[in-house]
């Protein structure tokens, strides 16, 4: 029986796949030796629109600061609570307005967290638009 070019090509692909599987196993082994779970969700990042207009601030704390909570769900759940870092990505505030705006991360668990967008001083700060970037990293 003659071997066709297609069979040769398929044999080459199978051989490459086997080599890649071995390399993945080797790398997973190295991750486990340094205390990382290779099946753990990787670091995740995204940009989240927080405020589309100043009217989006729908809650007020006992100091008169207005805020909005945005629930963010991870694309892939972690096996345990990850570390989450948030930073202002874009902030549109009128020139004459106070610039007292902050973001916080609260209630982090393996599947989601709350992003709190807060303007200090009640109505003195006007926010036309705000977006926030976050980075979540599995705990070691």
TrEMBL record:
Pfam family, one: H_lectin
Gene Ontology molecular function, alphabetical: carbohydrate binding
SUPFAM superfamilies hit by this protein: Agglutinin HPA-like
GO BP terms, alphabetized: cell adhesion
Domain H-type lectin: 70-135
Listed Gene3D superfamilies: 2.60.40.2080
UniProt protein name: H-type lectin domain-containing protein
